[in-house]
Please model this.
Amino acid sequence: MLKINNLHARVEDKEILKGINLTVNAGEVHAIMGPNGSGKSTLASVIAGKEDFEVTEGEVILDEENLEDVSPEDRAHKGVFLSFQYPVEIPGVSVTNFMKTAINESRKAKGLEDMPAKDMLKLIREKSELLEIDRKFLSRSLNEGFSGGEKKRNEIFQMAMLEPKLAILDETDSGLDIDALRVVANGVNKLKTKDNAVIVITHYQRLLEYIVPDFIHVLHDGKIVKSGTKELALELEEKGYDWLKNEAVVK
Amino acid sequence: MAYTEEELKKELETKEYEYGFYTDIESDTFPNGLNEEVVIAISKKKEEPEWMTEWRLEAFRIWKEMEEPEWANVTYDKPDFQAISYYSAPNKKPKYDSLDEVDPELLDTFKRLGISLDEQKKLAGVAVDIVMDSVSVATTFKKTLGEKGIIFCSISEAIREHPELVRKHLGTVVPQKDNFYAALNSAVFSDGSFCYIPKGVRCPMELSTYFRINQAGTGQFERTLVVADEGSYVSYLEGCTAPSRDENQLHAAVVELIALDDAEIKYSTVQNWFPGNKEGKGGVFNFVTKRGICEKNAKISWTQVETGSAVTWKYPSCILKGDNSIGEFYSIAVTNNFQQADTGTKMIHLGKNTRSTIISKGISAGKSQNSYRGLVQVGSRAANARNFSQCDSLLMGNECGAHTFPYIEAKNSTAQIEHEATTSKIGEDQIFYCNQRGIDTEKAIALIVNGFSKEVLNKLPMEFAVEAQKLLEISLEGSVG
Ligand SMILES: Nc1ncnc2c1ncn2[C@@H]1O[C@H](COP(=O)(O)OP(=O)(O)OP(=O)(O)O)[C@@H](O)[C@H]1O
Ligand SMILES: [Mg+2]
Model:
């Protein structure tokens, strides 16, 4: 589904991604871990098409299509979803209105009519129940005054509404309390099918007990320095990243 | 590959003014220039009684002695008042009973404006009085209104048919000598609307007037007078669009609202006069005096959405004369490219327990300048007067400016005045967030701006709110930098 080849990206003069290779197939869950500043969020943003980052080498391919000239909104229409590490506030725009706009814009791109109001309501009801979100919450301004945990839960609610093909969850677990973590992870698992894929970016092994990854990759200084199965997370929890940094140098 | 600022800007290039076209309807236009003869000729053309001619001449004499004000935060080349024609009316001047009789070209104009009468008529409960180049050409729903004793017609007709009402109220809120533009308007106003709601009557529909400037080089001097008698209620809408022109056009309207005891007037405007092109050439100069007076327990709310004009100078105000009266001002002012707006309100508290609310939302983009100027004045007898003001500015890009000038003069120590102000910027992060959810940049800006303006948009009547949202989108296209 997603194939990243030798991806280099930079902002201004600073090279952040230094040759990433990653293949994600439909039905898989991948976890990306790595120290602060190693480039995890940057990778997520580049996949989503953020213009601040200049891709200097390599490519991102989604379903055999090179995304080079595809705008962020078109990537979204093609099924890329990013749960932001720091969700943005949009004052005066309710969660409902925002989701309605997002869904209808995607439908428009596919040549479909706006979703009828009653289908929209049904969808909202279903997905807010899945994520145990109080419906009153949905009339509030998007992310404005939301607690850290509420913002993250709201990101996953949006993911549930949009049913993406490829979801990238950037530190969705940080800020969530133990119960919320369970609810959100459970929601993600329920949305998982053999046709979609998830990339979870996290610092904590605990999330991976709920959302069990098929593969784990460690990003360090803009490169994937180690890949493995879920046991790797336990090893990292125990030993930290230092031994991998050394390994990278030895390589 | 990567998407640069430059590309983003280009993609968002200004959409040229949509309503920029010119309708070829034969007009009867006066030669340029202003003197007593012209004033008399206007009055004659309109078949006015002598007192009206005298009133105009008095205004003209006052105007001649006045100087154009310079205190506003705007700069422009002063109009040459002798280079303007003060009267232009379509030659065919019938009143139509049905749409079929209306000049097809005119109907076409309305279609291009997106406010076709067809559409308007469907919006149940909206009576439309259209003023095109100063002469009212179509009025509908007159009968329904007539049954309730409501008068809704052009001001010229009112001067002829209801002289006693007009004579009693005209100039009582905005006197001829009020200011330079008001004096000019009083001397040469060509048309406008008049509305009278009798005692205790609740007007069953929104009353609506559309103005537009059509003829090249003609100034527009609309005069509107709304009188709500004791215990009555009316919601009045005014909208306008102007075709694009290279030379600046002058618009100097006067609106007077009179809310007698226990009456309520809601006045909403959407103004999108031609703002000039993206180099700052052309555009309408909009110098407007709007003021209302509230008697006991009366209420006036002004709601305005200002997206147009090259230069705007406008302060809809309330004189809260009666005890317990209420004044409200809700405003959205958008400036883009080289537009300049200096707008706000004056709340003059004279009566006891008077209350006022001011919510102003300024949106600036391009190289534009957007100023809020507000005065809250509490007189010595206005015990327990209260005011709440909130002024929010939203900036797009780094080349525009937002300014707030709140003035407070309180002569009564029991007055409570609160002022809040915020300034924010549309961030690239917000836009990317929307993009990531499948919303393109243009739509994202519209969404963010609508969110920012929501408190004011909510005050507009439904069908107007939809149009206002559309206008906000159009006027902000090409504004991310
Ligand atoms: N717009 C930018 N301008 C300059 N530097 C940037 C920009 N965006 C990211 N960086 C830098 O790139 C590096 C990688 O940042 P990134 O956010 O991808 O790290 P991360 O792996 O997600 O870290 P964390 O675990 O703390 O979230 C950091 O050094 C960061 O400061
Ligand atoms: Mg990060």
Observations:
- The longest helix of chain A spans residues 95-109.
